[in-house]
Amino acid sequence: MNIGIIGSGNMGRALGKIWSNKGHKVLFSYSREPNNLRALVDSIAPSALVGTPAEAAQFGEVIFLAVPWVAVEDALSAAGSLDGKVLITCVSPLKPDFEGLTTGITAFLEISAAETIAQLVPTAKVVEAFNLTFAEILESESRQFGSEQASVFYCGDDEQAKYVTAELIKESGYEAIDAGPLKTARTLESLATIWVQMAVVTGMFPNVALKVLRR
Known about the structure:
By secondary structure, the protein is of the alpha/beta class. It has one domain: NAD(P)-binding Rossmann-like Domain (Rossmann fold, 3-Layer(aba) Sandwich). The protein has an eight-stranded mixed sheet, sandwiched between helices. Strands 7-8 form a two-stranded antiparallel ribbon. β5, α5 and β6 form a beta-alpha-beta unit. The longest helix is centred in the C-terminal third of the chain and has 18 residues. It is globular, with a radius of gyration of 16 Å.
């Protein structure tokens, strides 16, 4: 599968490396250090490609959006058409200091970041995932916590796009948990705020993960 990464920071690089190692073709784009992106990608995924957001959008059957909330509109504008693409977003509207959600988005969301992204690219198949895990875990050798496998929630309105996302989650070493339609992102993004704050305050960041228990 061809995967275009828009946002080559910690999350984009970590997942891009995992997926590249799983045999997918990955194109990285939209870095804070564009001049160093080629060297960086060579160090983590030598078979990967580097390009612009527009090239990533054209290249990928799946697009992974991993940019700060404030950069979403710029990144999507640079990407151009995402018609028919599976767009996986891990974007949460967190403030830079992790003290809450950004202005205009309340703790009880009337609209989520994922839904806002879906409005910006209405012909894409948007799925939210990976916003409740940390890049440091993705960059480690395993997503196992002892005998337990960490869980990742995902949500979206297109069943085929959700299936593709679930498979990529599993390939990344997580248990994939279907959280329902895209509007579930409202609560998942609020949970992400609580989760990050808890991890930082307790000193467990980043070596902590969520697990869904059943009985």
